[in-house]
UniProtKB/TrEMBL annotation:
The lineage of its organism: Bacteria, Pseudomonadati, Pseudomonadota, Alphaproteobacteria, Rhodospirillales. GO terms for molecular function: DNA-binding transcription factor activity; transcription cis-regulatory region binding. Residues 32-51 bind DNA. The keyword Ion transport does not apply. Gene3D superfamilies: Tetracycline Repressor, domain 2. This is TetR family transcriptional regulator. Coiled coil: none annotated.
Length: 207
């Protein structure tokens, strides 16, 4: 790899790590690009050579954080687990990140989920690999007979995303960021969905 490209990549990572730390500690408005640059050990202008705006920096820093959780979850997943267990395994890595930096998720809700920039959430979920990972799990579960194959994959996926956001919103409102508690909330919701709405209808044996 070209040394200059490698150094640019390392600088970008330093900026993203510093941004996550500052956003978590100070929130979006009070986390200035000057403070982020100082923590990253770069000039303030260097930030804007990588990211055109502070909003884009938020999307990138959170997207890569999410991608890390997805990658770890997928690489440590057992193939014989049920659908809910696989989803919860991935979610547990994300909840652990949130428990470690709860302020960061508040920035996600304020500046990404409710951002004025069209497509920010979609970009983050797509770029992190989350949509592909969840879609693959749903399709596998439908093939294995765990989920009703007649329900469109995108409908199940959107519902999962909604339940995840609800879980986070509820725990933020309660200021309760224990990873196990967040997992318990989401698992209860997912299991209710699978058993009540997404269940694959049993095939009746021929008489």
């Amino acid at each position: 790899m070209n040394l200059r490209i490698k150094q640019r990549g390392e600088t970008r990572q330093k900026i993203l790590e510093a941004a996550r730390s500052c956003f978590n500690q100070f929130g979006f408005e009070k986390a200035s690009t000057r403070a982020i640059a100082a923590q990253a050990g770069v000039a303030e202008g260097t930030i804007f050579s990588h990211f055109p705006s502070k909003e884009e920096l938020v999307v990138a820093s959170l997207g890569e954080h999410l991608a890390e959780a997805i990658e770890r979850g997928l690489h440590t997943m057992e193939p014989d687990w049920c659908f809910v267990d696989k989803l919860m395994h991935i979610a547990s890595y994300r909840f652990a990140q949130i428990a470690f930096q709860p302020g960061l998720w508040q920035v996600i809700l304020q500046q990404v989920v409710f951002t004025p920039r069209k497509g920010a959430v979609q970009d983050m979920m797509q770029g992190s690999g989350l949509l592909c990972a969840v879609t693959a799990l749903i399709e596998d579960a439908q093939l294995d007979g765990e989920l009703n194959p007649d329900i469109p994959v995108n409908v199940i996926r959107k519902t999962i995303m909604a339940l995840f956001l609800f879980t986070i919103h509820q725990h933020i409102s309660l200021q309760s960021f224990d990873c196990e508690d967040m997992c318990a909330t989401l698992r209860e919701l997912l299991e209710a969905q699978v058993a009540g709405l997404w269940i694959c209808e049993p095939v009746l044996a021929a008489e």
